[in-house]
User: What shape does this take?
Amino acid sequence: MTEPVEIVRVQGLRKEFRVLRHRGGVVGAVRGLFSRSGRTVRAVDDVSFAIRPGELVGYVGANGAGKSTTIKILVGILRATSGSVRVFGRDPHRFRRQNALRIGVVFGQRTQLWWDLPPSESFQLLGTLYRIPARELRARRDELVDRLGLGAVLDVPVRKLSLGQRMRCELTASLLHAPDLVILDEPTIGLDVVAKEEVRTFLRKLHADRGTTLVLTSHDLGDIERLCSRVLVIDEGRLLHDGDVESLRRLFGHRRILQIDLRDDAAQGRALELPRGCEVLEQSGHRIQLEFDPDQIPAPELIRQVLVQREILDLKLQERPIEDVVRRIYRGDRREGD
Amino acid sequence: MAGDLRVWTRVYGAMLAASVREQMSYRGSFVFELVGRLTVTGLELVALFFLFQHIESIAGWTKWEVVYLYGMASICLGMGEALTTGFDDMPELIRSGSFDYVLVRPLPALLFVLGRDVKLRILGRSLQGAFAVCISVMHLQLDWDVSHLALLATSVICGVTVYAGLFVASAAQCFWTVESTEMFNAFTYGGAQMTEYPVSLYPGWLRSIFLYVVPVGFVSYVPAVALLGKTDPLGLSPWGVWATPLVAGTFLGACLFFWRLGMRRYEGAGG
Assistant: This one.
């Protein structure tokens, strides 16, 4: 079989779920037993895209936008309602087990590791499951363990690991069989800043060294911005945007938000003097939200300037929420802030 | 498929080994749990002995014959339970979404779930059942020949098959309702309790359920009648012995079909 040029090809993909309507009261409950009436929800609606070998694609959307449904269709867990889906040139649902040998999947916030066993034993079991020759398994495991700094936790039962340690073990588990396509569904969800950065660095290196095709869903724009070369944005099941990260950055300007809690009321006294590339987003009581462009004014510098002027109780640095980006795409903003 | 089975056998073996290792590291709790299970099920046997201090026989079955039935029920339920420990946390697997991980493996989901968790300590019930069968057989002084052994083996294999099928069907029910319901327990634990006594004891409708719908009664009663040389008021005996594997196989098939239906539902709706 000749390998198709694209690893993934999705055309006119649609996925509908039936949601049963809940009626109140005893009568409603009885009627619910007999009637099959319900609402049809379109989780994915006429989505088309293709992914070529070696691409690093971010799949972005708010919660419930249709990201996970698409992912589940790509790995063959769910059947598409209509449209055509090909992964490695095959229908992923019909050839789920064959494709599984070439796909690595990470679902954030769930575990594929055996809870009561140490990771090393999970890796061994997965090696058997994916028919990896013993020597190959050991070599790959050692390399991943080394890169992810897992040496110390290899023999600790999984239930005793921190979320960050566990996520790095999950990554190892998903990559043992050297998959050609790696799909990561919210791989950084719930992780702290340091753990997030470790995962990102690892993925970037994996892509650079092996040229592995990566598809990554996230509602954290930081993940997408720092990792991906191409971004798909989905909202309410429809594909809103498909382009390189630069084009998305033009949409949201890769601005960040600094939230400050002041000791005094923000409106009192002299107005805050702000540097170029920074403006007040919202201000109420003791809290003030600044939006800034880190290229013009780095975060530490901005914080220093505010500190000189006011007494600060607390600080929080945030990425622009994904909902914001989606809203801007709808409004058709091509440039912002200038 | 043959390749799948080889991989599955190796995974199953590895899980078994991991289970032994794990239990060795908690030797104390392993012993406690095993002894605990032996005691609980052992008390049932003691109760049976006290019952027979007041009566001679039940529906024409003597004490040691009933002990044999009781032992067989325990062996089959215990092994059926032990074989399917991987299904124990199906509600949790589905609720947490971890079942998706099952579906991205290069093995049929059923085999993977079956092999992903093996708990040996569950075997306590079977050990105690084997003990009951041994002492009953010693007291009954049967003339053992190959046909008796074949009957015993058939009875155990078919019994385990039916109970394992029930546990799989019980897990498959989670595809529709995530809350675990007690419905299937009526047939597994309840069924084992019913078949501790000859099914000829029960009224027709109840008997029919455990003979023909959920055949835990069929696979225990019919071979026992033949093995112990009883007269069978139900007239199932001569042909029924040959039908036993067929009955067990058909029931397992129905349970697996129920699992498939559940899987189809999951693939359509995504849990």
Remarks:
- The mean pLDDT of chain B is 88.
- The beta strands of chain B are 57-58, 61-62.
- The first helix of chain B runs from residue 2 to 25.
